[in-house]
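Intended use. Records like the one below are meant for learning the mapping from a protein sequence to its folded structure. Do not use them to infer anything beyond what is encoded.
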Amino acid sequence: MLDINYILENKAKVKKGVEDKGYDPKIVERLLKVDETRRQLITDIEKLRAERNKLTKEDIQKGKKIKETLRRLEPDLKAVEEELKRSYIKFLTYRPKMFMQEKMSLIIKKLKNGVKFLNFLLK
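Structure written out for the chain above:
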């Protein structure tokens, strides 16, 4: 299984590998785009939390404003993390239609050969 950091650092190599196996390389782009969004949200939330922690009791209004912003951003982060999980799972399990058709053709050929062999044994 490929780590997201490895995919990020070796984007061209991973895309080529995905394409060589007959998969759509756009799935790598989608995965990295979702990860980028997640990382940006984490950065924004951490900055707001740090700013909130520096506030004094006199900055109540600013603290409320930060709290409200965090209340909006944190569910967004959770949703993006779920999307990242789905994209990552899709990346790991993606099988193009053509690949599945080839696989089915091989299975059918093996079954036909097996039936021929069984018929030979039963005679």
